[in-house]
Amino acid sequence: MRIGVPREIKQDEYRVAMLPVGVEELTRAGHRVLIERGAGQGSGIPDDLYAESGAEIVDGPDPIYAEAELVVKVKEPQPVEWPKLRPGQLIFTYFHLAADENLTRNLLETGITAVAYETLRGPGGDRPCLTPMSEVAGRMSIQEGAKYLERPQEGRGILLGGVPGVAPAHIVILGGGIVGKNAAQIAAGFQADVCILDINVDRLRYLDDIMPANVNTLFSDRHTIREQLRRADLLIGSVLIEGARAPVLVRQEDLRLMKPGAVIIDVAIDQGGCVETSHPTTHSNPTFIVEGIVHYCVTNMPGAVGRTSTYALCNVTFPYVLKIANHGLAEACAREPGLRHAINMHQGQLTNQAVAETFGMPWSEFQP
What we know:
Elements: E1 2-5, H1 20-28, E2 32-36, H2 47-52, E3 56-58, H3 62-67, E4 70-72, E5 90-93, H4 101-110, E6 113-116, H5 131-148, E7 170-174, H6 178-189, E8 193-198, H7 201-210, E9 215-219, H8 222-231, E10 234-237, E11 263-266, E12 287-290, E13 293-296, H9 306-335, E14 343-346, E15 349-350, H10 353-359
Parallel strand pairs: 1-2, 1-4, 2-3, 4-5, 5-6, 7-8, 7-10, 8-9, 10-11, 11-13
Antiparallel strand pairs: 6-14, 12-13, 14-15
Helix pairs in contact: 5-6
């Protein structure tokens, strides 16, 4: 199979979708791998390492989209890439289609098969390709929150852990999944006062068992969220519904309950955001202020730590790349049933029910 890895062109995206060791494994298996020149530069991986591993280094994305049967990326195809896509071409990347109807409709017109990292399921029903980036984003959310709480960044001027005689910051985390768990662990290490809200009582019991004493858990409902907003110095939005748009848990009028200069890190922005006033931002221009509250809504948070994120991502995506290359998509799905859940569109038809319902569009089960 011909596999292509283009350079990521989304603003402030420094990850790359394949490591040199992946190239070596694919070429040893008889496949041809095309890497766009400079694709690994943002992650500190020079072209020479790819070439030494057997890759063909090509100039620009055109040869990749023209020749590759399987294109492996990190982020969704950007508008300038849409015309390069071909019917029947497999694109394996993060899509987050439910957050962008325009992207969904335009990709359907290309006739590609969209294989989405974020909806792929592992043998135990987990989401192995979403987990590592959720871990990175969860840990980064506290790092970024600490920075934007500083007064020069328009924040309240709060030190997360406080000092003797001064109370620490109160951090509210909406959602106790992978992002929320990792955010809480880092926040606890800063000695902040942390509260995790979730609607899954079993998950809350688990988190209560493993977290230190400065992390508390609460069942999430409208009244509890509003009560916690009054206390929050930092709010982390980390809710997820697989494949669908994130639910809006914080409305614009709720922001008036918060302290001026409090910070919101909406990690759910990839799926539309869980705060009504959120809209996508970039690492170059990461924040904006609504109702006196600082909003940080960067859609590719892990891209800022490209080297860490690239290695963490490729560790989990490459085995699926190799299976698809060796056996084709249909046989790979037969061998790895969870891979079927990753197929969000095929031959101009949506195959993900949650995405279809988000936009009121028809869908059908994937048929190889």
